[in-house]
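Risk register update: the risk of archive-format incompatibility is retired. Evidence:
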Amino acid sequence: MVITIIAVLASFLMPALALAKERTNQEVCLNNLKQWSSALQMYVHDWDEYIPLAMWDNVPSRAWCAKLGPYVDPKVVDQGSSPPGTVGKCPSHRNCPWGPNYISYGWNTDAFGMYFNVAKRLPRVAPDTLVCGDNKDSFWLNRAKTIVRQQSGLDFRHPGGTNVFFIDGHAQTFTDTPPFKYWTVTAD
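Archived output:
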C-alpha cells in the first residue's frame, strides 16, 4: 500500500520536475544569448560599428561565433564548436547532426548576410532587428526556412518557445516564429 502511494505521488511529481528542469534550461539559454549580445556590443565597439557576418568566404574561422567567441568565452572555438557548459551551448540542445559540441545558436542571415556580403554598420540597423537565436543544426538562421521549420530555422526546443536576442541588446522568448519585421535591418 505504501509503495503504491509513493508510486502515485512520484507519477505526479516526475513531469513537474522535468518541466522545472526545462524551464531552468530555458533561462540558462536566455542568459547565454544575453552574453552573446554583450559580446556583440563589445565587438561592434572595437570594429568601428561593424557587425560580423554569419560566415565570410565559406571559412568557419571567420564565422560570427569565432569572431565573438573571444569576447564571451575562450572555449568557443572556430567551426561552430562549443562544448557543453559554455555560453555557446544551450542545455536543451540535443541531437545535433554535427555532433554534441556544435553551437546551439544561429545568426540572422536575412539581416546580416552570410557569404561574400558587405558587413553592415550598426547605425544602419533597426533597433528591433533579430540577431541570433536557438537553432537546430547550423550557426545561421533565415526566415524563409524558419517558416517551415527546416534546417537553418529557429528551434522551438523550450516549453515556452524559442529564445532570440536583438540588436538593441535585449533577449526574449517567442512562442511562434517572430514576425517578418524583426528579420530585416530596415524592419520592413
